[in-house]
Amino acid sequence: MSEDAMDPDLEAALKASLADIERANEWKNHPNYSHLNIGDAPRDGNCFFHSILQLARAQIAESMRVEAQALEPKHIRQHIASKTIDQLIQCKKGGSEAEALMERYPHLELIRDIEPEDQRLLDLRDPRQLVHFISAVGEDAAVRCKHMTPVTVTNLYHLARDTSWDNAPGDYFAAATAAAFPGLRITVETDLGPKTFGEGQKKPNIVVLHDRHYAPATERP
User: Fold this and answer.
1) Does residue 60 fall inside a structural domain?
2) How far apart are the C-alpha atoms of 174 and 69, rounded to whole Å?
3) Which of 31, 83, 120, 176 is the most buried if burial means most Cβ atoms within 10 Å?
4) Other C-beta atoms within 10 Å of 162: how many?
5) Strand, coil or helix: 133
């Protein structure tokens, strides 16, 4: 073997790695996404929130009144949970405003009523479970949940908990995020087509959802 030749085992491993990368990105060539430039986000349970930060960090930071560069997915998730709690409290009051809010944000009913599959319900009377809940949603938000049902509390916990995704709240990250940040519009592109959440005149931020992974995207010129 010459000095310039690559070790056969190393060369085979490199080719296999490159092939894996190519296969992993094949989905980006799906016809539904031909109008998009698709980036990527870490596959750590927070891919949706990493994607949104790549696309709308400044807008989100302004809404939260925090330093943009300090923002991490866990901060956004806790903020979304807090806003969702406020919305659920408003819905509980009843009346026309509550009905309008539920109609405007259908995901609120899912958070309130749909029992998560394969997830143990949290009981905030248990001090250990209460500690876990507070660590996810924050102390102030947790206090506002004291009269909520175990189903609602459990869904809020998974909505807020850093890296949690493989559960019911993971299905409405986009809806809850758009509802928590006025003026933030999010279009989720899938193999079946797009769906947009949020209100206002601003151009929507685009995330692609494929094989249970979110990635940020921009429209091609």
Assistant:
1) yes
2) 22
3) 176
4) 16
5) helix
Pairing outcome for strands 186-190 and 205-210? parallel
Is the residue at 24 inside a domain? no
DSSP 7: P
In a domain, residue 16? The reply is no
Global pTM? Answer: 0.86
* Pairing mode, strands 186-190 and 193-197: antiparallel
Helix axes 173-180, 73-92, angle to 10 degrees: 80
Residue 1 within a domain: no
CA quadruple 213, 214, 218, 219: dihedral sign: positive
3-state secondary structure of 174: helix
Digitized pLDDT (tens) for each residue of the chain, 221 residues in all = 555 666 777 776 776 666 656 665 677 777 888 899 999 999 999 999 999 999 999 999 999 999 999 999 999 999 999 999 999 999 999 899 999 999 999 999 999 998 887 778 999 999 999 999 999 999 999 999 989 999 999 999 999 999 999 988 999 999 999 999 999 999 999 988 999 999 887 899 999 998 899 999 999 98
Domain that holds residue 177: 35-64+71-219
CA 147 to chain centre: 26
Structure tokens at 204: 């929507």
Token pair of 212, please? 């249970």
Residue with structure tokens 């300090």?
70
Residue 134 in tokens: 């507070």
Q: In Å, what is the CA distance from 1 to each residue of 6, 8, 97, 108, 125?
A: 8, 10, 78, 66, 70
